[in-house]
Design goal:
24% helix; alpha+beta; five-stranded antiparallel beta sheet
Length: 365
């Protein structure tokens, strides 16, 4: 079952409507409907709340191979089974032929039971192989994670049974949603998540909403190191276990601008002139939601053979209202300059975003 199908089944078992479930979670009915249609996935906080409400582990809701807990089967009403009713009594004196018949029947029964046990073991082994193949197929066919941010969990500590790191950007900070489940859980251990980078470390408290699961929402300011490893440290009686959760690389991409520079020029003899530069900034939403970074201003420089010959401010141009929300366009025009077609030229564009950071884009021969 998918995550959405499990949420729908658990909701119906509780006798709740989509609207009633949304009210308990502080969400709209539409949000619950999207979960159940597998058009969206609940956040970690919502998963924890669903786990508490339905009384099932988060893993059971998320993992396709995990079955929902079923009700224990009960015998039909009026039917009672007792060991006393299964007893067979024999007369104290049996004939020799009868004794051999009973022995043969017992041997046949033993062979039948042994055969059934062997068949059950074989079926379980085949089912385990099918499950492994299904997991491998799911791992190959599931959608790839966004390539903009590298999150390496392949080398996580063997003392962790499960771990995850989700990355996003809220306009001022990089935000990490960290989850880790140790193989051995000790409620007396004090837990922290540690972000280790080349020249230091940052420490964050770890919460345990469910027994054995540690989570944290970590915010690091833009400008902090964006390549680091995440560890879960568990301390008890001055003894500390340090478990590698995973590594994050290239998070600065979350706050970057995506722009393309289009130079347009013409030659007349040994003169480079009519040199116009268009800069188009893509404002499509990122895989993590709306893009919070946008350009505010910028400048363009013309370089000939590595020498800056002119600098102009970029002018905002609203080319078409249909693209206003998806693309921002700037333009500038350079003067004519003496140059030959054999010389190298390049345009450098510097854009300043709404957080005061500068982004460099280039184009040229």
């Amino acid at each position: 079952m998918t995550t959405g199908e499990k949420i729908a089944a658990l909701r119906r078992e509780k006798g709740l409507s989509q609207e009633a479930l949304g009210e308990q979670l502080g969400l709209s009915r539409q949000a619950v409907s999207k979960w159940e249609a597998d058009q969206a996935v609940p956040t970690m906080d919502n998963l924890v709340e669903l786990s508490r409400l339905f009384g099932v582990p988060v893993d059971t809701i998320l993992r396709p191979e995990e079955e929902l807990p079923g009700k224990e089967a009960e015998p039909p009403e009026g039917v009672k089974i007792s060991a006393e009713g299964l007893k067979i009594s024999y007369a104290p004196v049996l004939t020799k032929k009868t004794r051999w018949f009973i022995i043969a029947l017992a041997v046949l029964l033993l062979v039948s039971v042994t055969g059934n046990l062997y068949a059950m073991v074989r079926v379980q082994g085949m089912q385990a192989q099918v499950d492994r193949l299904t997991e491998q197929l799911y791992a190959v066919s599931k959608p790839a994670e966004p390539a903009a941010v590298g999150t390496d969990l392949e080398n996580m500590s063997p003392e962790l049974s499960e771990a995850s790191i989700e990355c996003s950007f809220d306009g001022q900070n990089y935000v990490l949603f960290i989850n880790a489940i140790p193989v051995l859980f000790d409620a007396a251990e004090q837990a922290q998540f540690v972000l280790r980078y080349q020249n230091g470390a940052m420490y964050f408290d770890a919460d345990s909403y469910l027994e054995g699961m540690y989570t944290a929402v970590v915010r690091t300011a833009v400008g902090n190191p964006t390549d680091f490893s995440v560890y879960l440290t568990l301390t008890k009686d001055d003894q500390t276990r340090s478990l590698l959760v995973g590594a994050c690389k290239g998070m600065e991409v979350l706050s970057a601008l995506d722009a393309v520079v289009y130079p347009e020029f013409s030659w007349s003899g040994d003169t480079l002139h009519a040199f116009t530069t268009n800069v188009e900034v893509n404002m499509q939403p990122t895989p993590w939601g709306e893009r919070p970074t946008s350009p505010v201003s910028g400048t363009a420089q013309l370089h000939i053979d590595g020498v800056t010959v002119e600098e102009q401010p970029l002018i905002y141009e609203n080319r078409d209202t249909a693209y206003r929300d998806e693309q921002i366009r700037f333009t500038c025009r350079f003067d004519s300059h003496a140059a030959t077609e054999e010389q190298d030229w390049e345009v450098w564009v510097r854009l300043t975003d709404n957080f005061g950071r500068e982004h460099l884009f280039t184009a040229g021969k």
